[in-house]
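To assess whether the prediction recovers the assembly geometry, we first specified each molecular entity separately, as shown.
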Amino acid sequence: MLGTLNFLDEAKRREGAALVRRGVSFSLAQSFDMNGPQKGWRRRTNPVHTMLDTGTDAERGTQGFPHGLGGADDVIFMPLQASTQWDGLGHIFDHGRAWNGRRAGDVVTSDGDAVTGIETVASLICGRGVLLDVGRAIGTGGELPDGFAITTEHLEATIAAQGESAHVGRGDLLLVRTGRLARARREGWGDYAGGPSPGLSFTTADWLHDTEIAGIATDTWGFEVRPNEFDVAFQPLHQVAIPNMGLFIGEMWDLDALAADCAADGVWDFFLTAAPLPVTGAVGAPVNPIAVK
Amino acid sequence: MLGTLNFLDEAKRREGAALVRRGVSFSLAQSFDMNGPQKGWRRRTNPVHTMLDTGTDAERGTQGFPHGLGGADDVIFMPLQASTQWDGLGHIFDHGRAWNGRRAGDVVTSDGDAVTGIETVASLICGRGVLLDVGRAIGTGGELPDGFAITTEHLEATIAAQGESAHVGRGDLLLVRTGRLARARREGWGDYAGGPSPGLSFTTADWLHDTEIAGIATDTWGFEVRPNEFDVAFQPLHQVAIPNMGLFIGEMWDLDALAADCAADGVWDFFLTAAPLPVTGAVGAPVNPIAVK
Amino acid sequence: MLGTLNFLDEAKRREGAALVRRGVSFSLAQSFDMNGPQKGWRRRTNPVHTMLDTGTDAERGTQGFPHGLGGADDVIFMPLQASTQWDGLGHIFDHGRAWNGRRAGDVVTSDGDAVTGIETVASLICGRGVLLDVGRAIGTGGELPDGFAITTEHLEATIAAQGESAHVGRGDLLLVRTGRLARARREGWGDYAGGPSPGLSFTTADWLHDTEIAGIATDTWGFEVRPNEFDVAFQPLHQVAIPNMGLFIGEMWDLDALAADCAADGVWDFFLTAAPLPVTGAVGAPVNPIAVK
Amino acid sequence: MLGTLNFLDEAKRREGAALVRRGVSFSLAQSFDMNGPQKGWRRRTNPVHTMLDTGTDAERGTQGFPHGLGGADDVIFMPLQASTQWDGLGHIFDHGRAWNGRRAGDVVTSDGDAVTGIETVASLICGRGVLLDVGRAIGTGGELPDGFAITTEHLEATIAAQGESAHVGRGDLLLVRTGRLARARREGWGDYAGGPSPGLSFTTADWLHDTEIAGIATDTWGFEVRPNEFDVAFQPLHQVAIPNMGLFIGEMWDLDALAADCAADGVWDFFLTAAPLPVTGAVGAPVNPIAVK
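The predicted structure of the complete assembly is given in tokenized form:
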């Protein structure tokens, strides 16, 4: 039921923790606010944050609390995949089948994902993280162009370029930086959400399977290259990876600060805790991933 | 600007990571769903999770994706303090003043917290966690009764009972278990949200300050004892701790599984990553804290 | 496709308009706020209204508008059937079939009601309204007790008691007052939402059909008597009336002020405009019904 | 407290009802969905409608209701001014003052508008409506160009062109069609929300006051001409009309079908019911206005 997270065991967590040498921590989350890339596709808005109580009211003394107390409180409305997130195993189906061959309608109804809801992995996603900065290794100015399909060869070349600390194996949480987010930050969001982007090639499916990684995340909207490599498909690597491999995929992660640090000290692995908000039955969940080196 | 998180330095993170011996991980989050304790006080509802796309639809083939692809997607509406959360430094004011003496209205308007929004600490909250199971040490059947005020003496007695791994000092993230959540789980929520509860006594303010802890969290709705200890105040320890000490307070954490493990192996400290969802300008934020032993 | 609204024709609207004699208007809506009866059943919360901008902020001058302009703005999250509402024809299915024999899954998916969404009747619901105050005619102190099943005989007796202006026929919008809301207002909501209540008996189905009314609304949560009259059914009159008759049913209307006026002047019919908020694809919709006498 | 709605009295409602000659009704609402014009300005998204239960689920038999019952239910998140709406009197302030000279912070806090919330006019807004199709009378192809400021002269010329039924006076609900919505419908939303648009000139303020109309609505985003007529102001006519005149302003109404009918039969007045959804404390409210001729 846990898909590739079954590869992430206690030994891997010990290995991850041992990578903490300096004690410096990085958040790999984008900010959650209205300044995000969403444009409404399939009802995905940016997160809308509103206040239930404010300091302005508190200062004015209208809140009715005793003895000088004032408070502020707030609320959010957001698509669970509006910003930095994990796809749950109920997010994608292949010909009506969810992960493990279950009928899609036996898994995800209007009540949410009754089988593989994100809460089932609430405690699991921490261990050894490894960053492959393909943008830096293969691209120009640290960025791959839109439409660039990252192949197994590119991944292997990046590992080779980065050295021993960049090895990828069973149970690892793999982060792939393309530079797409850096470009969006510089040029404006444009079509970051759903438009052209570098990303994993469909041809990496075997490699993703054979390495037995526990999960993979990118700094792009949709993990795989856009436009997709087949005319008659939509996000075909998702269609293979989620319902057929049980792979955990993270999207819209911000890997830039971590990548700069790794480039500086030449160490590309770290302890990564990427605990999804455990919304019961969610097929995706926001996350604030923390890498510690 | 970071309040007590200034005490949490890189050395403390190294110390925390060194506590990972077995590699077992615990989520300290309650689930985020409609089965929570909220009853609408000050417009705080439980989290409402709805689906944008479902497996039922995908299986029926009505989604319009090519080549057998199906998808599920979802959205949430929730008060940021509906479930397991951190209070931000803009959450509470004292006589119109926010943390660091700023005027409350200069900090938190309808646009959110422009100064100490939770995103300002997005990367910081990971380090050594230590659990004081006061419910177990002082209570009956592992639980303190409602209205029980935990004093400095109770905290010190619990540290003494738990032994060396339970020492508390500068930069630690302190978790205090009262047993209140276990009771709610057994008996139903009742008035868990805002009603009678064990919790920290107002008299612990000096101890909280002097220990220079980086943050503190409990398994209760409101951190401090309820009813409060003064007739003419509401959450008076908040009023001291947040705007005057800059203390980070966590509420509604689920410490039960971790506490059982600590009792079993006699080790009460661990590596804790408690990264709030970085909602820009938020005065509180949901979190899925992960403890690794 | 319009169900019983096909009975509401232009002649009926002329007849309705001719009933405006004094020019006094009544809103038949409850207020939309957190003080409503919802308790979270099937994720139905009360409406949550939050501010995007406030007068407190405007007065303090922090909004950034030029030349002394200030603004306030707001947002709402609400189940569409949280308060005064119309059920759409896609709200209830009978053995997998929606109104007009369509398969339920061909009508209402996660994208909403593609066939009978409430927007399809956006302009139609105005005409002759007639109020039957069964609580007053049959009950005690103007109220029927909980569990009281209103039969055809009770409806006919109320018509007889109220006189000629209370006749009910083809194309009319029928309002049935039970007194349940008045009781809730006096005693607190209690189980107004889903609990015991007076309401229409299942045995009125033929009468509802034969009268060819265009719609019917009550001052109760669920239109029909609660508990329901059969052990092995849930809201059985809905199951007959919506998917099989195409009847428009209104719930949680506030009929008290209008009823008092009708009792005072002895005139029980009026011009009624009950235009649902045209949320595209909605299976129910909030409404502020206006009766003019 | 009711502002210009004080002009709308019972005689005016009788006059309005007498205008119902054919019994044909028009909804003047745009649809409430994600296909609207909002782009996120000041956190205004389009309405997000999601399902709590669907027909797909019902047909599949997974809902757990007895005896073949199935249900669909839904929820909405929307800024109250996302689509067709009334501005409440608490929407705009002038130099820190709300309508009737109250301090803005005494009227609208994070809890909403405590004085002039839209619920205070829930029952009032029905009476004689009159449509001035300035786009048709003055424009080209029924449309005024963006940036066109409608002056008193244009209004008077339109009244003269349309004839006796277009007279405007005390207590009337005035609808002004510019053709802007028709253009957006033809060309796409573009900058309908906040961008260039025809609209009322600031110089009509006296006329709006002197006619003693009860309210005015347009088919544009912002009622007044855009760009505004002064460099150092934002929506200056709002700043005069709402806090200083107490004028009710409607925006984003769809007047096209009604206008076509009026042009066809030469009758420009009708019975108008435009009852805002009575969200307690709202400073604006969605509405489905119904005109009956």
